[in-house]
Amino acid sequence: MNGPKMGHYLIEHILAPQGSQDIQATHGIINFMDEMPGGFLIYRMGGTEEIIYANKALLRIFQCASLEEFRELTGNSFQGMVHPEDLETVEQSIMEQIANSQYDLDYVEYRIIPKNGEVRWVEDYGHYLHLEHVGDVFYVFISDATEKRNLSFAERTRLMEEKIQKEEKLKSLMEEFDKERRLINQEHLRRLEVIEGLSVNYESILYADLDADKILPYRLSDRTEKQFEKKFQMRRFHWYTNDYVSTWVHPEDQALVTKVSSPEYIRKRLAKSKTYYTNYRVIHRGELQYLQLRIVNVGSGDHISQIVMGYRKVDEEVRLEMEQKQIFADALNTANLAINAKNTFLSHMSHDMRTPLNAIFGYTALAKKYISDHGAVENYLGKIEIASKQLLELIEKVLELSWAESTDTRISESECNLSDIVQDVHENLLSQAMEKNISFTLDSIQMTHCDIFGDQNKLRQLLSNLASNAITYTEEDGQVDISVKELEKFPNNFAVYQFVVKDTGIGISKEFLTHIFDPFEREKNTTFSGIHGTGLGLTIAKNLVDMMGGDIQVDSTPGKGSTFTVTLRFRIQTHPLSSANHTEDAFSSLLNKRILLVDDNIANLEIETEILQGMGFIVETAINGSIAVEKMGLSSPGDYDLILMDIQMPVMDGWDATKNIRSLKDPAQSRIPIIALSADAFDSDRQMSIECGMDAHLTKPIDVPLLLETIAKTLHARKYSEMDGSRQK
User: Fold this and answer.
1) Which of 39, 169, 673, 679 would be a feasible disulfide site paired with 58, CB 3.0-4.6 Å?
2) Would you call 569 helix, strand, or coil by DSSP?
């Protein structure tokens, strides 16, 4: 007798040596072995080391479809399973195991060569056993360890510690089994040894006969052993299940576990598949744990009675599953919030842009209708101008918000004077206040150190937004005050400053204060009163305060007004800035200055030329950067005093044109002042203009006073820079 038949014959004698009455249970155990996840092998000791039995999991490890294919691949020998380079190590381990106690499990790692030729690593737990009817044999538990060996050192160390613990536990169990060997018959002991090896991943293994209403434990955990008075005694199946569920299972899962472990349900499920499992919760020592109950049909025929029940922990699997579900839920929620925010933003934008656009179209139509009535046309044009300013304000606020919420939150510190900044903000907004007959005062400037290092653009924008917002929401004949106070000075030349903007406006309700910095949010009283506002000014102000590392507080009473208090810390400038301001003196010298105006938009060229000529400049134009570079290269000293350069242009944009001009060999050509005049309004655009060699960056539409001031300052700064350069020579 040889081959597979011989293997089954020997297995039957290993598990049921006393007769045929246990053959059915034996086949049940063989079927269970095939269902276990780990590889299992039995082979003869000595000689050719003939393979007696291999389960399905071991065949899968070697990528063999059948036992016959596996025997052919290995030469039907354990030696044929091992990589030739590792065979000596494995044989040595086996010899050491034989020399030790017959109840110890040896452990060894070695390589194998599966059918596809790809070398893989396995873990091998082996045990020597002498069987009266068979002789000396080894039974071996094998698992694929390739992925484990590829883990990091720390992980491998952890796994090694777990492996040692498993080995110690297995050793302890074997010692315990040795003590129990005197109390039970040889047949049960041999079955236990096989099941123990197969159930490395299971904390409990039980065999049940549903027809006989009996259950027999083969391996017990802390939980399941309490359901048996003696470790290996038989119990009634329904008594065991009821006792286990009521003692250990979480109350919310008791109905489920009772259902899936009932004989009727078991037969129904196993009629469709060989095995099934159910996850549930238990409470062990006050700790919530997740377990899995797997039930396998090990009987023969259509009638289902003999089963094996396996229990194992699945905490990690459930945790990973729940984490994945939470990640998906969080991502979905974030996406929904983003969609809602976008829809809200577009809704507000559509409403707030259409309102001034409707006024522009309406008054334009009326102006055309009454074109001969100069008074009416002038009135309509004035209203068109107001609506245009409202639309421009909205666009600018949206751009400011987008910039403030971008990832670029860099602070560009430079020397500046806080008193000058506050006074500039007051002067720039004074006309807006006067239009509403509002008293706008610079209440007080109480500072010991006015010269600081800070981002003056962001600070000016912050104070302008707060003051402009106060003027907008203050009714006629109201009062708006702005003040600044130095609170305290710290070591290392740092000081804390408090900026206060106070108004007698419509005020803010207590309920709305929590939303005051949200974009496009406006209180109902602003709508009822007909006050125009974008709902973005305070959002931008809050973002600017956060970027500068400060704090903003609001105190408001409906019908009486609001007070905004901003606290910021700045580094003090130890060498005070020169207070001399030559800008006004420079205005008189601008007459007849020659400007090269560069813009690809013909309408813009026409409008800007008219404005500049009306200011006393001599203007020459170019429709792209390439033409501007060419004109500068052919120019003589005095042909141009200044270049106003658009950015976005065909052929060559303004930044590249500036770089080319700065690289001209003639200093009179390369050092000409260049000011960007563009619709690009982001801070990153301004920074790029400066990095390319421009002297300043202004945005469209043209603010005539600001343009005149910037030209004067630029020409003045360039003049004194050249004078300093001459002195150094």
Assistant:
1) 39
2) strand
d(CA 202, CA 222): 13
Residue 696 β-bridge partners: 675
Report the candidate in 492, 444, 708, 124 with the shortest Cα–Cα distance to residue 698: 708
Residue-wise pLDDT for 389-401, tens only, equals 767 766 766 665 5
- The torsion region of residue 693 among left (phi > 0), alpha (psi -120 to 50) and beta comes to left
Please give the class, per CATH, of domain 324-402: mainly alpha
Question: Token pair of 615, please?
Answer: 């200011």
Helix segments in 563-601, DSSP class H: 583-587
The answer as to CATH 3.30.450 being correct for domain 202-313 is yes
Q: What is the domain partition of the chain in residue ranges?
A: 3-196, 202-313, 324-402, 410-572, 584-728
Q: Which fold has domain 410-572?
A: Heat Shock Protein 90 (3.30.565)
SS (H, E, C) 84-135: HHHHHHHHHHHHHHHHCCCCCCEEEEEEECCCCCCCEEEEEEEEEEEECCCE
User: What spatial distance separates the first Cα and last Cα of the chain, rounded to whole Å?
Assistant: 111
Q: Measure Cα distances from 246 to 42, 47, 158, 236, 250 in Å.
A: 40, 54, 36, 16, 9
**Which tens digits make up the pLDDT trace of 538-578?**
777 888 888 888 899 999 889 899 999 999 988 888 755 44
- What are the two backbone dihedrals, phi and then psi, of residue 475, each rounded to the nearest 5 degrees? -75, 170
